[in-house]
Amino acid sequence: MSGLSDSKHRAMAILMDRAPEEVLEAIEARFHSAGPGLAADVASLARHERLERAVLRQVFGPLLPMMAARADGVPAPQFPRRVPKMLWEQLVQRQPEMADKLVTMVHLDPQTVVPVTLADSLCAEAAAVLRSEEPARLGLESPEQADDLAAYFDMMPMARSAVDQVPAWLGRLDGGQLTALRLTFKDADAIRPDGGIRLMEILVSRMPRAAEVMRVVAALTEPATAEFIDSTEMAHFPARLLGHVEAVSARVVLDRPRLSREMADQGVHDLVAISDIFREFDVGFPGISGGSWTRRLQAVRRQLTTQMEAAYRAMPQAVEKALPLVSTKLAGRMSRLVPDLTAEPSSDAVARASALLRILEGTRLVAVELGCEGARRAAADVIAERVDAYAEEGLHMLHDNAVTDPQRAIALITVAAEFLGLSRNAEAEALVLRRAAVATSTPDTGGVAA
Prior knowledge:
Elements: H1 6-18, H2 21-31, H3 38-60, H4 83-94, H5 96-108, H6 116-132, H7 143-154, H8 156-162, H9 166-169, H10 175-191, H11 195-205, H12 213-221, H13 226-230, H14 236-250, H15 261-284, H16 291-322, E1 325-329, E2 335-339, H17 348-362, H18 364-370, H19 373-399, H20 406-423, H21 426-441
Antiparallel strand pairs: 1-2
Helix pairs in contact: 1-3, 2-3, 3-5, 4-5, 4-6, 6-7, 10-11, 12-15, 14-15, 14-16, 15-17, 15-18, 16-17, 16-19, 17-20, 19-20, 19-21, 20-21
């Protein structure tokens, strides 16, 4: 069986370059024993890509996260993702013996740890390449960008050991760890005037949450005040986080006429991200005052708290519109309100109320962080009581055959169950759904059908 043609081989290589590591592993595992032909060629390409990535991790590992945007959206230095491969091609040409030695070691065992001296020597050569080659040949946009990346390569000997310490430095430091942290950054500044800042950028790129950098800043500057930190190179990191918080908070709109679930979920996601950053400021610098931090943090807190409280106040009314009541006569002039089980279960009002309640449920911890848990709890209690009574009465009406359209009634009771789950808990929702299922699966004298 013939293998891939040249054009298909190139196309497949591009796909492999963009494939996640787990996909490459799956392809190689699936076709590793295939005979000659297309399957064998595909497996070979997957293995080649995996080995090439392993080589790049060994040499450029600490800098590789900087070749992609941060998952949390916080701005950070970023270089084109194709740069490491193009830079490695240049190293293979300039230092073939060192490159071949490293490749041989990795190909024999992709999990091996190559000698630090070998990796650092190749990184020093990479810095020289960045400062001497035409930037476009390396996938870079300008000489300034090339110089910027070269400066990070200058820090690689120190970064290679420092990144291993990140988990410890983000925890509760003992005296020895604190001393090691401060000496590391002192040595970084001895390498370059901006060595400390560049080392910190490399460390932040390894942190899943950029706000964790505040723990390291606090450890390095303790017991400095906000005003002092504002005047140092470390001011760059809290300022960037605050800028991100302000940008994200500006797009948070919790209560709008046509609020969708997607909008609500995005709003909750943004609020959780902001709250997480607030928490890192509060933990790293408890009781902070002064400087630009306090004013900016307080302004965002006030804006978000005002929005959240307004949204919480609007929720009970939104639920009433989604699940309306109707007056029914009892005897004489007496009447009472019961669920209107002729309402539309897929109305815009239901969609808006559902979206608002997703915000109610998703901001439990955020409300505590921002100081509006009282308003959230009050709204949740009112809504849960209202919806619980609606579901209870609706189930009785269904059981007593007091509805003209059982299917519509069940749909509305299901909406009520969802609202109860979002305002109280999942167990309350499940109980209503089980009772509704029983009501529709057991025919009674009136013939309510399943």
